[in-house]
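Lecture 7, part 2: worked example. A protein chain together with leucine.
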Amino acid sequence: IPEKETIQVGNEDAMMHALFADSFAALGRLDNVTLVMVFHPQYLESFLKTQHYLLQMDGPLPLHYRHYIGIMAAARHQCSYLVNLHVNDFLHVGGDPKWLNGLENAPQKLQNLGELNKMLAHRPWLITKEHIEQLLKTEENSWSLAELIHAVVLLTHYHSLASFTFGCGISPEIDCEGGHTFRPPSVSNYCMCDITNGYHGVDEIHSTESVCEVEALMEKMKQLQECRDEEEASQEEMATRFEREKRESMFVCSSEDEESAPARDVSRHFEDTSYGYKDFSRHGMHVPTFRVQDYSWEDHGYSLVNRLYPDVGQLLDEKFHIAYNLTYNTMAMHKDVDTSMLRRAIWNYIHCMFGIRYDDYDYGEINQLLDRSFKVYIKTVVCTPEKTTKRMYDSFWRQFEHSEKVHVNLLLVEARMQAELLYALRAITRYMT
Ligand SMILES: CC(C)C[C@H](N)C(=O)O
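Predicted complex, written out as structure tokens:
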């Protein structure tokens, strides 16, 4: 997102100004994440409140542990932007610099968390109550339940924030490592000559085509709305549609996938390349189905978190709701549009990739509303954010505003965070009962 198309400091309204002040007070800087998220002030407010609570307020874990866990999580996706920020914070609160040489230099207790970190980030459906038991039951270095919940929320928060960082192409602030380079590290596959030539990835020739794209999408939404009332598919048919979409989502990948991303330095000590999403998606891994009817955030996850780490359940719940319900009733240049169907398709598509199924949702809608380039973008940002390119960002929804693409990212990160949490919390519940 070109800087001049973001909200300019000095031109913000009163609400945004208050948020800038909050963010500055909490982080000691006005970071680029805040400057991009402020497109959606109501969400930003809830995001900052939650993050502040997790990092700075009273809670089960000591401060330096919290930042270290943030580093571990961001490093899973080689997100040097977030790793750098938290390395600073970690040292600032008195963390031992030796730990930064790699997980094997950190206390055993944190090392034990490494496995859960990997699974949460790449294959959360494999988490069982035995994994939880291992963390809680080890003689020495054991985690308390409250500490574990705190850690799980931090891990999922930073996995998702890494998705946001790559999904929106956030570059480091000017005073940070990489912030003064010509080519920001979170924007890969972007040729400098394109920038100097004024080519920003959107072809002029394509622009008429993409105007029709918006209209076609709106037409589809209308049609779906109309035939919704007409035909009711059977239970079996609905289940089949879900399974089909889930299977297909395994094979969605971009042609750029083959190009290997340049190694990012900072996180090399934390990397474990033997474990990523990609290796499994290649061969079409089997993701079991998780029915929301049996375990949902509203009925189960929320209260478990609240019981063990008061207020955090509430904060997360609020944040999920804001992201899910946020709307300006616009579609690119069109106003007064009900976009709930489209936003729901995005949310449910992400949960579908994680095997999470809503019995009452017709997964046939997803194929009608989300085209291939959009699916590639979604899957990349959610599953392998480090592989996101500017080209992917530019090539979906070409007529939409940047603020709308950021809006999409809010849906992606919250849906991802909730999916990871659901699996971890279900395993914790199973361990406890
Ligand atoms: C993600 C976009 C489709 C959101 C749309 N601009 C709305 O306000 O609802």
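Confidence is low (pLDDT under 50) at residues 187-205, 260-264. The first strand starts at residue 290 and ends at 291. Keep this in mind for problem set question 3.
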